[in-house]
Predict the 3D structure of the following.
Amino acid sequence: MKHDSLRQFLANPGTALSKGPIAMIFVEDACEIESTLRHHLDRGFAHLLVFIPDAFDFDATLAARDDVHRIALDTIADNAVTDTVNRVIAAAPGLWMYYCFNAEYLFYPFCESRTIGEMLTFHTEEKRDAMMTYVIDLYAGDLDRYPDAVAVDDAHIDRSGYYALGRPDPQTGAHLPNQLDFYGGLRWRYEEHVPTSRRRIDRIALFRAREGLRLQPGHTFNDAEYNTYSCPWHHNLTAAICSFRTAKALKRNPGSTFDIHTFRWHNSTPFEWHSSQLLDLGLMEPGQWF
């Protein structure tokens, strides 16, 4: 289904906002649009809201599906993502939602055999309304062959080099309970090319909408509880978004591309496109869900 604007979509969403979870996918370029959409359909999302500039297109079979909604949007405009997410939140309180960009792929524990709905049902039963997701950088192993750093068949990840720091309260400076700033991957290894405000790899990408909830710059919410990685009494589920986005940016940016001849280092390993690898590397947490 095609919509000329978010306003038009929200005026007549049909069944798209009647049942969750829904995925909002923001298309920034022509890279891996179809693979991103198919991956998230395979995870079991009820509907995909695909925010995409008119200049880009994707497979007609996908575009014709009743559960894929193409919505025209200038996705690189200032505050486009946060403003759009907040308008969808306001239109559908109570629904579980997710957001990502093209060439990003959601993984959660046991996602090969369990749907996103099953996982979020369990998470809801644990009285959690949001889930921490870690953005794990993907990059091509051979930049001579793949100069834009994107290669689904040659994807690599860092198997170590991730760390967390206490998140200070902006008012008092004290560490906020159950909130951490997470770092690692290409943003850590090439931090001289990444603005300080964009170096974190944590994103609250899965959340349940409610009245008054707002996404803020920096991938956090105006409700402190939504920004926690776990409840106080035991570990909770977390997920990973495996993403070519940083690698793409580093190779497209004239200030960094000529300094990078390969992203591979001694802690690189081929990405297996399976949740078990991410669990084994400690890049997401199954919590009490088995």
Q: What stands out?
A: The longest strand covers residues 175-183. The helical segments are 6-11, 33-43, 60-63, 80-91, 116-125, 185-189, 245-252, 275-280.
